[in-house]
Design brief:
Blueprint (H helix, E strand, L loop, with lengths): L15 H13 L2 H8 L3 H15 L4 E4 L2 E4 L1 H28 L4 E7 L1 H6 L1 H11 L3 E7 L2 H10 L4 E4 L8 E15 L10 E2 L1 H5 L4 E3 L4 H10 L6 H4 L2 E3 L1 H10 L5 E4 H10 L3 E5 L4 E10 L6 H22 L2
Parallel strand pairs: 3-4, 3-5, 7-11, 8-9
Antiparallel strand pairs: 1-2, 5-12, 6-10, 6-11, 6-12
Helix pairs in contact: 1-2, 1-3, 1-4, 2-3, 6-13
């Protein structure tokens, strides 16, 4: 253990808020990001940490130029701090249920396609039904969302890959179909069908590693991520980035049927069938298994299941 900075004030009761700020600071890795997530000023976060360290007589984090690192003393105290926060949260959840109220905060996560094309009406219905719940949604590739779930920054999420990590429970919540798209001037645009070989002769535009859609495409084409076809691929951030590159004629790609409907109607993108390629991708509702489910999380899951069931039926009919 490192030596105490100063005589401790250990007889003083600790603040739940300070433990929350300490835990969030470690998860975010910097005072700036922690302050943004907690909706506090950076000096306020820094002041709470300094006071917590003074009370304990220990240095919990090392301040660095581009963030912070946790000290051995901080590492030793972090599990107990998180356990205390979980106990405090469970007391509040029980009180909410006794009152029959759904209030508080809900930290949501989603990969790109469901965030843009599935969740908006679900979130609108949730907010209309439970106006006292404030929610924050993080949108990122599926693997990053799962990391946030495990780190505790996200309570419930929808992702495009089925997790294998311990401590996460998942259930299918929706699906889409991956469709080959080309620009309106591309040679494939006038054809109804092409072969897999013809597709692989074209520059392939893919989302970056970590995307559920990227993995679904590679699995559907029967190629490994280390193959030369993938090494020659153009890697682009986000669905809109893929669309722009394909519209410009720089390659072909596969995108979710949900994401291209308006583009197909405008003829800015053209869908083409591929012989032997049929990829239905599932979306999963994921939560941590070891956490008590908050009333707001439970309410969100109920609304999501009800509203997204219709999208599953439409996808099955394609």
């Amino acid at each position: 253990m490192s030596a105490p900075q100063r005589p401790s004030r250990i007889e003083e009761p600790l603040s739940i808020r300070q433990l929350e700020i300490f835990s969030t600071l470690i998860e975010e890795g910097s005072f700036t990001r922690a302050a943004r997530r907690l909706e506090l000023s950076q000096p306020t976060v820094s002041g709470h940490i300094a006071d917590l360290e003074a009370r304990l007589g220990l240095r919990l984090v090392d301040r660095r130029r581009h963030g912070i690192s946790i000290t051995p003393d901080g590492e030793a105290l972090l599990p107990s701090a998180r356990a205390t926060l979980a106990s405090e949260r469970n007391v509040r959840l029980l009180a909410s249920e006794l009152h029959g109220l759904v209030t508080g905060h809900l930290a949501l996560g989603s990969s790109t396609t469901p965030a843009v094309y599935l969740l908006p009406p679900v979130l609108a219905a949730f907010q209309a039904t439970y106006p006292s719940v404030r929610f924050r949604m993080t949108t990122a590739p599926s693997v990053e969302i799962l990391d946030g779930l495990l780190d505790g920054g996200i309570e419930v999420a929808i992702v495009g890959i089925q997790p294998n990590e311990e401590g996460i429970t998942c259930e299918p919540i929706g699906r889409d179909r991956m469709v080959l798209i080309v620009g309106p001037e591309h040679a494939f645009a006038g054809r109804e069908r092409v072969t897999r070989k013809e597709v692989l002769e074209q520059p392939l535009v893919l989302r970056k590693p970590g995307s559920g859609s990227r993995q679904a495409i590679l699995d559907g084409l029967g190629i490994d991520h280390t193959n030369s076809e993938v090494r020659r691929a153009l890697e682009v951030d986000g669905t809109d980035g893929v669309k722009s590159v394909v519209r410009a004629g720089l390659g072909v790609s596969f995108l979710s049927d949900l994401s291209i409907r308006e583009d197909v109607e405008r003829r800015s993108l053209v869908p083409v069938e591929v012989d032997g390629f049929s990829v239905m991708r599932e979306f999963f509702l994921v939560k941590r298994t070891e956490e008590s489910e908050s009333p707001s999380c439970r309410a969100f899951c109920t609304i999501a299941r009800t509203m997204l069931a219709g999208e599953v039926e439409r996808s099955n009919a394609i």
